Amino acid sequence: MNQAFTKMNDTFESGREAANQNLSANQVVKRPRVVIIGGGFGGLAAAKALEKTEADVFLIDRSNHHLFQPLLYQVATAALSPADIASATRVMFSKTSNVSVVMDEVTGIDAAQRQVTARNSGSIHYDFLILATGAEYSFFGNDAWAAHAPVLKSIDDALHIRARLLAAFEVAERCDDPEEIRRLLTFALVGGGPTGIEMAGAIAELARTALSGNFRRISEEDVRILLVEAGSTLLGACRNSQSQVALEALRELGVEVLLGKAVEHIDAHGLVVDGSPIASANVIWCAGTQARPAGAWIGAATARNKAIIVGPDCAIANHPEIFAIGDLASYTGSDGNTLPGLAPVAKQQGRYVAKVIAARIKRRSAPRAFRYRNWGTMAVIGRAKAVADFGWIRLNGFPAWLAWSLVHLMLLIDFRSRGAVYLNWTWAWVTRGRAARILTSPDATQSTHKLSTPVSM
């Protein structure tokens, strides 16, 4: 990998030398190098905006694909396949000569020498650096819970959760112990944000469609779905009226919503909520997040959630050549509030930072301080059930669901993904079926859920 990167680096240098052969000694120009760490919404937006600039751009990410995370819960609940919401990053830049994609993991940054250290590629020099490493889930100091409560952040996470959900039904079908069946078919979601309510609604619909005529020994009455939220309302970013609509929609789907209740313990048997133990074979963590620890690489000042505190141009104090965007950045807006960790924030910051860098390369005045344009908040609860708050208008029910569907289709990265998702959604709407109900491992039911009692058929 180090040799491959060196060869790629030499290609850029050769291009510079060829271009400089036609220039006089005083006209030789060295193209600046922009390194972007992270291929999420922010990093991708920055790279796209830098395509036509006089800079060599290196986009470094641990995976070889861009993931549309807002629909990841549908992979976890068997509505979509991973390829429907993920696209190979290299394909997006196949016709762009100044952007190179490097699949590697960054392990450190030497800000003084302006070098990034990657596990396989070694040292990579930069003139400008954009940090877009995103966030990870936080268990609020209870890291031991992670072994029993999977999170939803990557395709691997989604496939793991999907296997657990589908295996729970399969194991319950062959179980004779009523208590064990209740434990297997009790699904607990921790966190009342968009991911939590979308997962709860999707599992409720999965239970209905999966159990309707497919199983012989278990029924919908055996399924229990809980959503636990420590706060007093769901969807903290929405208005109270929208939160109430979401609450009522979940209850219509049969979801038990526990508001103002804190999770005190999670283990292999289930969880403890407000002093009450709840037996569950499937606890899914959808609660708080924290920025990945990129701030420690450069000794930057960070907020409580480990996000790097940035200035009006998203640059880091004492390092005007280093920018942090998206979930990694703690940006205080003109209203005094910190911007939320949402995809639109990351995309807008990515494009803005690209403009700042382009202006510096051309020695032009920098654009005005970054200003986030809030286009609204949406969350889907189930079939024709959603809430949307665009500020100037609020939608509920089917109109909100339709708006949510159209917006998410348009935000998908390419036409193939839009077509695949549209076809799957149409098929699901007509048949109420799930297109991805496949357990790929023959041992899934043994490794994921172990029966405490023998079974007889």
Automatic annotation (TrEMBL):
<keyword id="KW-0560">Oxidoreductase</keyword>
<dbReference type="InterPro" id="IPR051169">
    <property type="entry name" value="NADH-Q_oxidoreductase"/>
</dbReference>
<comment type="similarity">
    <text>Belongs to the NADH dehydrogenase family.</text>
</comment>
<dbReference type="GO" id="GO:0019646">
    <property type="term" value="P:aerobic electron transport chain"/>
</dbReference>
<keyword id="KW-0285">Flavoprotein</keyword>
<dbReference type="InterPro" id="IPR036188">
    <property type="entry name" value="FAD/NAD-bd_sf"/>
</dbReference>
<protein>
    <submittedName>
        <fullName>NADH dehydrogenase</fullName>
    </submittedName>
</protein>
<keyword id="KW-0274">FAD</keyword>
<feature type="domain" description="FAD/NAD(P)-binding">
    <location>
        <begin position="33"/>
        <end position="350"/>
    </location>
</feature>
<dbReference type="Pfam" id="PF07992">
    <property type="entry name" value="Pyr_redox_2"/>
</dbReference>
<dbReference type="InterPro" id="IPR023753">
    <property type="entry name" value="FAD/NAD-binding_dom"/>
</dbReference>
<dbReference type="GO" id="GO:0003955">
    <property type="term" value="F:NAD(P)H dehydrogenase (quinone) activity"/>
</dbReference>
